Every structure is written in C-alpha cells, then in structure tokens.
TrEMBL record, chain B:
Record keyword Transmembrane helix present: yes
Name by which UniProt lists this protein: Nitrous oxide reductase maturation transmembrane protein NosY
Residues annotated as transmembrane: 21-41, 53-74, 109-129, 141-163, 175-194, 243-269
Keyword Transmembrane helix: yes
GO CC annotation: plasma membrane
Length: 213, 275
C-alpha cells in the first residue's frame, strides 16, 4: 500500500477541515477525487505531502511519516499545485533546483514540454512567473511527468489549458507507467473518465463515497 | 547539505535580479563608498572634526537604513513565498526543511552583506590608490559590527516571518520592533531617565540589550571615544566596560541574539504547519 490515511483530522482555527478521513491508495490506483469547493481536498493532499501537522490520526506514504521523513516521502511523489505559483526563479534556475534536489535531468523536462508543444528553450532565462498561465501549467506538468514517482498528484491540472493543450495532456497521461498511481482532484469527471479506475467524493471534510469504476 | 547551498545560491540569484537589491546597493553601498572616499582619504584636508562629523552621519544612516531594509525585504520574501504558494511548490520536492531554512538564511545574509562589504573593499582600494595609510583595524572592526548588525536583524526577520503567518502582521511587527529600538537609543533613554527617575542600572541594562544602541556605541567609540554626541548612557557604558570589552560585546552580543532568533524561527518552521 502506497498511502494509508487513518482517521485523519485537521482543524484550522477551530473548524474541522478534515474530519476522520480514511483512505488507502494502492499501487496502480487511478483516482478521481471530487467534491464541492472547500470540501478539504487540497488540505488532504497537503497533509499527505507533509505540509500540515494533523491534529489526530495517522498518515504514511510508503511506510514513512510525511512530516518526519519528508525527504523520503517526497522522493516518490510528483505534485502539481492547484494554481501555478509565481516563482521568481528563471526557468533555468527552476530546472537546476529540480534537477539537483530530485535528480530530474533537464533534457527530460524539455522533452516532455516539447510533447505538449511548449518550447521551453525559447524562454529559458525568463522568470517563471512571466510565462503565460497555460505555459506555466504545461511546464509544471512536464516536470511532474519527468520525475520518476510512485504517485502523481494533480490538483486540478487543466484549469488553464486551452482545449488542445488539455487533449495533449490527457494523451500523455495514458502513457504513464502502469505501476504509478495517480490522484486527480477535479471538478470535471467526464474529461478523465477514461483514465481513472476509482472515484472518491469528499464533502465537509469527510470521504462520502469511494468506489471502483 | 548539498541542497542547502543550492537553496542559498538560487536565493542569491533571485535577489540579484530584484529591485530592492539595487535600491539597497545604491543607497547603502553608495553611502559607504562616499564615506570612505571623502571621509577617510580626505581626513587630512577636512581635519579631525570634519571626519568625525562625516562618520557620525554615516553611522546614523546605517542605524536607520540597515535594520529596516533587512526586516522588510526578508519578511516580505519569506512570508510572501508562503502566501503566494511558492513555498508549497518548492517544498514539494525532496528537500529537507533544514536545508531549505538555513539555505535561505545563508542566501539572504550574502545578499544583505555583499553590497556593504563590496563598498568597503571599494573604499579600501580607493584609499590605497590615494596612497594614504588605511586604518585597517578600524575598517576590520567596523565591518565586524556591520556583520553583527545585519545578522541580528536577519535572525529577527526569519523569526518573525516563520512565527507569524500573515505578511502584513509580520511586517507590522517588524516596524514596531524597529521603531522601539530606534526610540530607545541614547536620546530616548535620557528622556526616560529624566521623566521617570528610573534606576540608572536599569537604563544601562536596556541600552545594552538593544542591538541598535550596541552597534551605535561600538561604532562611535571606534572612531572617536571622546565624542560627546554619543550620549551620557553610552558614555557611561564605554567608561565602565572599557573599549576592548565594549568592542567584543558589540561584535558578539548581536551574533548570539541573531543565532538564537533564527534557531527559534527554525523550530517554528518545523513544528508549525508550513502553509
Ligand atoms: N491554511 C489554512 N488556514 C485556514 N483555513 C484553511 C487553510 N487551508 C484551507 N483552509 C480552509 O479549509 C477548507 C478546505 O479547503 P481546501 O483548500 O482543502 O478545499 P478544496 O476541497 O481543495 O476546495 P477547492 O475545490 O475550492 O479547491 C476551506 O474552508 C478553507 O478555507
Ligand atoms: Mg483545492
């Protein structure tokens, strides 16, 4: 089992954002996670990535605690955030950071980006935040796909993409290794229906539905 | 450890491109250069009082500019990264919190201290070219004081921005700390002493706690121990400690406080939610 979350609760300033959540993610799971705004989806993902100290319960990723052993946990996870962050580093520097910290070869990222019709080389010395919204998103996707991980987490990855970019993105997803699990947070199930084999529905900080499809 | 230097390197590169760094370099480095060029090398021409006045102005400017510049830019960048989710993305890669925090600290320190140091070098080169004998000991000690002053405020900035989540509150907090410290340099202290008939020992103690005052006494004593502008409290401290101990204190006290504050900041970074 890749991720095990048992009775995970998290409060922000007194309000329960995660309320005793139980989830296990196995090898090869392709999950679509849905739920209304504010349901706690992003919070759950951030807890798995070790950003939050949960109030009760337990999370392990590959048997490791995300907070105490964050390096071991993050070595095997690729993550795309909900909104592209306004990183001030140039693309060149960002790729250096990623390459050194996670061992992702730069050429690999350029190649993946190329497959989404993004020519990064042209913008290599631009600050990341000056790219267009869709270009940022594509680069983040290229980075995530280049990283050899057991688990890909996408928090609404297609929000900024034009229809063609979206199509390309889904095409790339079909090539992801069988053994790699994926977790998509999305509001448009129809788009990724063919790519997932399990769907989880969250509301008010609880998992209200979890079924194979 | 390898990621620590990576984070530091990238932070320096990012700062080198930012506007605040240019303003800072021009204002501070320029002043420093001006001071060395006109002050030290022309001291023969200007006479001793002329030089002292020059130095005094420079020290006062340092006292005001350096702390607030360090506080604002550092707090803005650290809390800003968290609020804009840059931190979320950067920390989704396998980098330990230790490497990230201390790497940022190292990078920041280099960017803050570099212009000052380069300006100093510039001054030295200029002085050598002019052929005057350089006051090496003074140059060295003064840079040590600047080092300590930068360090303590950097520590404070890291402490505030990891402890307080919101950029605005952290910035507000920095302002308050800065204003209080500025108000409590010698002039403020005398006022307090006169009005409230406070215990002299307490006032001296307060003065010794304030890194800005410590820097001020140290720096002024270095140039002119007899200077009356220094203020009675400072004079009293100088007289009691002796100039050697005062210099040692002025170098190490801020470093110790800065190290403690940045360490507490690190603890908060690890023990609290990152976002
Ligand atoms: N750092 C935080 N501090 C305080 N409250 C927070 C924090 N992060 C999230 N929340 C609150 O937790 C709740 C759940 O937020 P979360 O981002 O997990 O929702 P979500 O399911 O991802 O929603 P969306 O579909 O809009 O992205 C919200 O009410 C939000 O205001
Ligand atoms: Mg969300």
């Amino acid at each position: 089992m890749l991720v095990v979350a048992e009775k995970v609760s998290k409060q922000f300033m007194g309000s329960k954002v995660l309320d005793s959540v139980n989830i296990t993610i196995n090898k090869g799971d392709r999950i679509a996670m849905m739920g209304p705004n504010g349901a706690g989806k992003t919070t759950l993902v951030r807890a798995m990535l070790g950003f939050y100290h949960i109030n009760s319960g337990k999370i392990t990723v590959n048997g490791h605690d995300p907070v105490k052993e964050r390096v071991k946990v993050l070595e095997n996870i690729s993550f795309i955030p909900q909104l592209p962050p306004p990183v001030k580093l140039s693309i060149e520097e960002l790729l250096l950071y990623i390459g050194r910290s996670s061992g992702i070869p730069r050429e690999r990222v350029l190649q993946e980006a190329g497959r989404m019709d993004l020519d990064i080389q042209k913008h290599i010395s631009k600050p990341f935040f000056k790219l267009s919204g869709g270009m940022k998103q594509k680069l983040l996707i290229a980075i995530a796909l280049s990283k050899e991980s057991d688990l890909l987490i996408f928090d609404e990855p297609t929000a900024n993409l034009d229809p063609k970019g979206r199509e390309k993105f889904y095409e790339l997803l079909t090539e992801i290794d069988e053994s790699c699990s994926t977790l998509f947070i999305t509001h448009r199930l129809d788009e990724i229906k063919g790519l997932v084999n399990r769907q989880i529905y969250m509301d008010l900080g609880k998992v209200v539905e979890d079924e194979k499809i | 450890m390898k990621n620590l230097f990576l984070v530091a390197y990238l932070d320096v590169k990012e700062s080198l491109r930012s506007k605040w760094f240019y303003v800072y370099s021009v204002v501070f480095g320029g002043l420093m250069a001006l001071f060395f060029i006109s002050g030290v090398s022309d001291s023969v021409v200007m006479g001793f009082t002329g030089l002292s006045r020059m130095l005094l102005i420079f020290i006062q400017v340092t006292i005001i500019i350096l702390p607030i510049f360090i506080l604002i830019t550092t707090v803005k960048s650290i809390s800003g990264d968290r609020e804009s989710n840059v931190l979320e993305y950067m920390l989704s890669f396998p980098v330990s919190l230790k490497d990230y925090y201390w790497g940022k600290m190292l990078g920041r320190f280099l960017t803050v201290f570099m212009p000052v140091f380069l300006a100093l070098l510039l001054g030295v080169v200029f002085g050598l070219l002019k052929g005057g004998a350089l006051p090496w000991k003074m140059v060295f000690l003064y840079s040590a004081f600047l080092f300590s002053l930068s360090f303590v405020f950097l520590g404070l900035a890291f402490f505030l921005s990891t402890l307080v989540k919101s950029t605005d509150i952290a910035l507000g907090g920095s302002f308050v700390v800065w204003i209080v410290m500025l108000a409590f340099i010698d002039i403020g202290l005398i006022g307090l002493m006169l009005q409230n008939r406070m215990n002299d020992g307490l006032i001296v103690f307060l003065a010794m706690l304030n890194p800005i005052e410590v820097f001020r006494i140290g720096a002024i004593s270095l140039f002119d121990p007899e200077l009356t502008v220094i203020g009675p409290v400072a004079y009293y401290i100088l007289d009691t400690l002796g100039s050697t101990w005062l210099i040692i204190y002025a170098i190490f006290y801020p470093i110790v406080i800065g190290a403690l504050l940045s360490y507490f900041g690190y603890i908060a970074f690890r023990k609290k939610d990152l976002l």
